[in-house]
Amino acid sequence: MDNNRYDSHRPRKRVSRxxxxxxxxxxxxxxxxxxxxxxxxxxxxxxxxxxxxxxKKNNSVTTITTAATTTDPAITxxxxxxxxxxxxxxxxxxxxxxxxxxxxxxxxxxxxxxQAYPDGTEEADERWSSGxxxxxxxxxxxxxxxxxxxxxxxxxxxxxxxxxxxMIKVTVRGDSTDxxxxxxxxxxxxxxxxxxxxxxxxxxxxxxxxxxxxGLPATFSPGLEPICYQQxxxxxxxxxxxxLSLYIGSGFRSYHxxxxxxxxxxxxxxxxxxxTYSARPGFxxxxxxxxxxxxxxxxxxxxxxxxxxxxEHAHEYGFIIxxxxxxxxxxxYQYEPWHIRxxxxxxxxxxxxxxxxxxxxxxxxxxxD
Length: 369
Ligand SMILES: [Zn+2]
Known about the structure:
With about 375 residues, this protein is an alpha+beta fold. The chain folds into two domains: about 1-55; about 55-360, Muramoyl-pentapeptide Carboxypeptidase, domain 2 (2-Layer Sandwich). Helix content is about 35%, strand content about 15%. It has helices at about 15-55, 80-85, 175-185, 225-240, 255-270, 270-275, 305-315, 330, 345-355, 360; strands at about 95, 100-105, 110, 115, 125-130, 135-140, 145, 150-160, 165-175, 205, 205-210, 250, 290-295, 320-325, 335-340. Zinc ion binds near residues 72, 74 and 293.
């Protein structure tokens, strides 16, 4: 190269030290740029993953990624949702117990000890109840007694702060014939849901109705009803025996949660469109505590074996597919294979057999006019 430096006869090949240096610098700059680009791409990919993980604080939260699939009346989207639906029905309270599951023989007793109370709650505020007293009873200090083989939940609530509740899974062991009988046959009747003694609720033929015509007071906030939760657990246990996975995508939602969700949809799609798939605050059935959205809460769920199983078996556990296909004009909502409402197995079976939706059965409207 040095030879060329002074070769004035071959000007094209001549490369001065300055030019050479410039070329080297350019090459270095290109390499540096490529390295930087690579680092940025890797960093970007990592931060996306982080955001998704951060949003999914527990497995009961489903993050919806596209607007096209979010069609639940009270559904969740990314940012809003995470705050709105982080309601793990079991572990949402500040009660700390020494055990959360109890195994008993019939006639045997056991008592979970409270190790920590929520703020403002003390021993005298303990309110114990059994989801199914025919399986296990509980007294007012939390002494649980096995009555007959089966599984149920005992709930500890705070009298001074009813939002604070914790559930204990109780398994009462029986002989082997009972164990083999229970998986297939769900002949044990799913009880009717409790009747809430609250002003402003509409009961028709003993059924709490919430749709576009019948709303709920903003202050009504019962949390996920223990019977609803317990029956869902029984149902998902039966599905699991057939290799299927049913889990809670979304459960109870307060008036305020729904306000955030609905307002968000109105901003995105306008009120007319939002009303076809999202309930206005005070009109979401999720506020009753008797509703669960299963799994991924999107149209894709409808094509899964879980959805097919749910449609065939939900009534055995006391649930109905609340917004069936072909009933959109009557329910006021798009078809939602994932949204189930607890009504008890008597009514659920009646609706399953007749093919009616709840509005048809109760002869009521669902519109905002
Ligand atoms: Zn729903």
